[in-house]
Amino acid sequence: VGQNLVTLKEADSTNNYLKELLSNSKPVADGTVIMAESQYAGRGQQQNKWNSEPGKNLTFSVLLKPSFLPLQQQFYLTQTISLGVVTAMQQVTGLPIQIKWPNDIYYGDKKLGGILIENMVQGSGIKNSVVGIGLNINQEVFPDWVPNPASVKQILHKDYELSALLLQICGSIEAWYLKLKAGRLDEIHRQYLANLYWLNQERDFMSDGVAFKGRITGVRNTGFLVLSTESGEKEFNLKQIVFLNK
Ligand code: BTN
């Protein structure tokens, strides 16, 4: 991962750029990384925009070809990438950075980064996976419309060199990806849970506009979040649940 690295001054979105490369019929190597200093149409999950001040943060996309992974095990790719990013960020910063289900990067109750995975399916497998990663590193001020952001700079008051950080994260993603390839699924799942924000804590959630108390007890292989609530165990997908902070 990152052996083949393309650095752009500007792109609409590195995910879009990589997807266009793939549709241009020339082969693109597994592990190719597209990084942009600035994105003018950065995308987040659920149709959100992704804000990133030019030159201050990491915005990049990784091409993976997880053809060995059955479609029903897609969520293991999400767990693998999340672990790759979070463990690298922990090592570099020394901070107890966590994964907010399914794949946000959190420090305390603040969002440091996010991941947008777009899979191209062929038959019963994933042919290409475009893994977009945005991490707030050196940005000091965020626009008001961005929900609870934080950057490493705001926490540690120092700047990080982006190219060195990118290489570390790529190395870490590769290490976790090799575990996925080797079929070490239980280990990946255990480590994902070990780094999960709000695991086993009594917290407030909202579903269908109704607030309730619950405790995250696990995550299914399908990616569903499992909560223990007053009315028993319940499962949710991303659209069905909101985490409520005090
Ligand atoms: C989210 O938390 O909603 C996911 C954010 C993903 C942002 C990254 S930045 C690089 C790549 N290109 C994009 O347009 N989005 C992803």
UniProtKB/TrEMBL annotation:
Residues covered by the BPL/LPL catalytic domain: 1-181
Keywords carried by this UniProt record: Ligase
GO MF annotation: an example: biotin--[biotin carboxyl-carrier protein] ligase activity
GO CC terms of this entry: cytoplasm
EC class (word): ligase
EC number(s) given by UniProt: 6.3.4.15
Superkingdom field: Bacteria
Any Pfam family hit: BPL_LplA_LipB
CDD domains: BPL (cd16442)
Name of the featured protein: Biotin--[acetyl-CoA-carboxylase] ligase
